[in-house]
Recover the amino acids of this structure.
């Protein structure tokens, strides 16, 4: 049975003599695990596949591959922690934010065919040396 009982579960029990058998779980705090050998496919034919959890959804594995026509993320906040990241956009990369703050511990390099920096207020450049041209 895929359910692993936990202390505090409320169960339905039958028994005869000293033998007791759990025949149902009325309220459980344990974990249900569906484990399969080899590759497993889950598919919703003609509809959407939804995964939901009252306390969240966790995906864990050696590698995650997502192949889709469109990718949308809607969240109140997002945290990414990476050893390194590579992003390649063949079209337009557009970012709009209320504010932006970037800290680079080492060197920073930006290259473009043309570039514009436009401010409506003050702009400050501070460095030991500033080379133009």
């Amino acid at each position: 049975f895929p359910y692993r009982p936990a202390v505090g579960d409320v169960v339905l029990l039958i028994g005869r003599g000293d033998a007791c058998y759990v025949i149902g779980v009325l309220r459980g705090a344990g974990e249900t695990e569906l484990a399969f050998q080899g590759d497993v496919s889950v598919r919703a034919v003609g509809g959407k596949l939804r995964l939901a959890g009252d306390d969240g959804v966790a995906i864990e594995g050696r590698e995650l591959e997502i192949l889709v026509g469109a990718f949308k993320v809607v969240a109140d906040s997002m945290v990414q922690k990476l050893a390194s990241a590579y992003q390649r956009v063949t079209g337009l990369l557009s970012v709009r934010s209320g504010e932006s703050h970037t800290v680079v511990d080492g060197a920073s390099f930006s290259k473009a065919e043309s570039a514009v920096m436009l401010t409506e207020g003050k702009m400050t450049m501070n460095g030991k040396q500033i080379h133009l041209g």
Residues 117 and 123 are 10 Å apart (CA to CA). The first strand starts at residue 3 and ends at 4. The radius of gyration is 27 Å.
